[in-house]
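Is pyridoxal-5'-phosphate placement plausible here? Inputs below.
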Amino acid sequence: MLPFNKPYFVGTETRYIEDAVRSGKISGDGTYTRRCEAWFEQHLGSARALLTTSCTDALELAALLLDIQPGDEVLLPSFTFSSTANAFVLRGAKLVFVDCGPTSPALDTAALAALVTPRTRAIVPVHYAGTACDMATVLGVAGQHKLAVVEDAAQAISSSYQGRPLGTLGALGAFSFHETKNVTAGGEGGLLAINDPELVRRAEILREKGTNRAAFFRGEVDKYSWVDVGSSFLPADINAAFLWAQLEALDFIQAQRCAIWQRYHEGLQPLAALGVELPTVPAYATNNGHLYYLVCRSLAERTALITHLRAQGIAAIFHYQPLHRSPYYASRHDGRPLPRADRYADCLVRLPLYVELDEAEQQRITREVLAFYQQ
Ligand SMILES: Cc1ncc(COP(=O)(O)O)c(C=O)c1O
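Reply from A.M.:
I modeled the complex. Tokens:
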């Protein structure tokens, strides 16, 4: 079976992990953690980049940092992963789901302004497939109503909006280094990019169990104490060592993934004429080769396509179930229909995409998708 995803190992990961182990400092904030964070601060231009144990944790840290309170409202897409929502639900926030856009699974930014109320505190755009949302509108609505913007950039490493790296346009940006993402920190990992300098000091404290340990290690205070709420968001240095190996190979990884994405896009163009939706990359956005999807014309068609590919030994899979219809939140949703989120949940299918997918294998996948539609 050709898998849907296969994590890529650069080859230097175990050497760097061994190096971290031999250094005798394997908890958080070791040499590799600092190296990775410095890399992100340089490449993103953020005031601070903090490694976390996952993107889920980075989002939870963001919600804590923004002091989201019970009853605050947060605007976010319904077509996303539970973590985008959980971070705010854990603080007692009310979720106000936004539908997908007319031509892509990205947030329908035209709907945002009408959903703002006096209780709205934040907008959380998700850069689905690593392709930027319409951030001018997001930032415009947020600026007008003094709302915080937390970018869920889980899938968006190395991608940009009008030349600005994703994850750096809002006050905060959360990235994932789970094994399904373009680079991984050894299976699980994340990062919070802190773009508002005023949030940096408190972010370091919340991430370190509410203590001012970071300031203590910098020699800024003579003892460290419990000074705020917090949790344990800091990953072990061996995860950072793994991630460092991947970051060193990022150009190669990105080139491979984007080449695969492009070949799918060219090979599957005939489907567009049949009414099958293929991904679009707006002029303001870039493509980071994170995932390639098709949007079938119906749920029945998608089920048949997935079954056909599986019979040919190809694992293709659907994506999120819409959160406004989830068992956990459906009864709390305000009842607005979100038909585009429903459609993407029912009809979107993702094709295998990983660095080691060779051209012959990929051609076979493309051939089988086209053969399904020729039947
Ligand atoms: C949009 C989005 N946000 C957050 C997450 C959570 O990432 P992690 O697994 O690193 O916690 C995911 C996971 O795939 C995701 O797709």
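Short version: The mean pLDDT is 97.
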